Each structure stands twice: as structure tokens, then as C-alpha cells.
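Minutes, project check-in
Item: structure for the 252-residue chain
Input as provided by the requester:
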Amino acid sequence: MLEKISFSDAIEKASVAEATRGGIGTYGEKMLHRTLKFYFEPDESKHEITCFGSVADIRNDDGIIEVQTRSFNKLVPKLERFLPLEKVTVVCPIIENKRICRIDIESGESLPPRKSAKRGKAIHALSELSMIRRFIPHDNLTVLVMLVNVDETRLLSGKIRVGRKLTSKINCIPTSLGSIMELKSIDDYRLLLPPDMPETFTALEFEKISGLRGIGAHGALMLLLQLGILIRERKGNRAYMYMQTKINKKVM
């Protein structure tokens, strides 16, 4: 694994950097993104490095490291430039547990935090990774799926402007790190499926099992089909039946 300092030390470094920059970091990055950058490379001089016509989150002796918390489609032009020339690690954090901390904007009072009912799972990474599926697998590409726990700070009422958006969310502060999955080979991606995944299921059943919906579930299924982890069949006018494979088919 590529980590070089403890996760708690990375949080501390990111907090100091955020305070120094007035709460908004270089390129408008958020606290979770910044923490993971320090986790994989504590030397800030190796952050945000211009190479091959793009800005890499990190470039060091391990190669290029890209931390992407969402909108994986934005990685496509970078991967087109980076992968033919250098090893690339794409970090995909999934929020496993979240505490919601609310602040009264008028009094500044903080209310007792409450635990969010939503719980992230490793399988949720498939939705984002489907946006870069044409690069999977690749000899120069490693994906790290990281389960993290966070405190999300929200305004009790009212909204503030962050960039072009009005939002009640102020920040998402990482608190601890859960499991990490390293994905390189096709079979590694099987690790994202829950152990109780049935051998055969429909798209609707996949949504219920995975917690993904709509285009996110569709993208996940398309990636698993591409990798040969799933195959599908349709008889007559019935919905497709998806089946797990034991041996991967060759991916073209």
C-alpha cells in the first residue's frame, strides 16, 4: 500500500493547511480530498504537479496518484495522458459512516451530532468507476477503494454560497479510516461484490442488493459485464438475468 503516514496525522496536516488557506484550499479542494493527499504524500511540494499537460494531485516515486471523491468522468482526459506514460493510482473514497453535525448560523451553537442512516459500501465504488471503465483493466492502473468515516457539518437553517452553488453543507471532515481494497486484476473487482450476492439476479434485484439506483446501478452492471464478472441472458420479453461467472472471459 502507498500510505506514508498515519491517517490521524494526515487529518492534522490537512487541518493546518485548511486553516492556513482560510478554509478553501488550492483548486477549491475539500477536507476529505486534502486529507487523502497528505495520507499518500505528506510532502506538499509533490502535490498538484503539472505533467503531461495536466495537473496531477500527487506525483512522487510511486508515480501519479489521483484522489477522486466524485465525478469520475473528469478523470478521463487525465488518464488518457497519464496511463501510456506512467503508473497511476486512482483513489476512490467511499463514506462508510457519517455523523451529521448541525450549527445554528445565528447563535453559532452546535447541536448534538446524529448518525446518518446512509451507509456506504464497497460496491458503491462501481458506480463511479464505471465512468472510467474503458481504462479498466490497464497495466499502469491501480484503483484503491477506501472506506472512510466522516463528520459532515451542516447549517441548521439557511444556506451559504460555495463556488456557484448554495448549500447547507459546510464541510466533510474525515475522522477515521476503515478497510482499503487494492484493485489491479479483473478478479480483484470481484471483491467489491457482497459475499451474499446471489449467483443469478435481475437489474432490479441488483439495485436492492447494492443500494445503487438508476444510472449508477446501470453503470456498475456495465462495468461488471465488461470485466466478464457477470454475463446476462434474456429469454423472450423478460428482463435480463445477470449471472456471476467463475472464470473471467477475455476482455477485448
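Outcome recorded: The CA atoms of residues 80 and 232 lie 30 Å apart.
No further action items on this chain.
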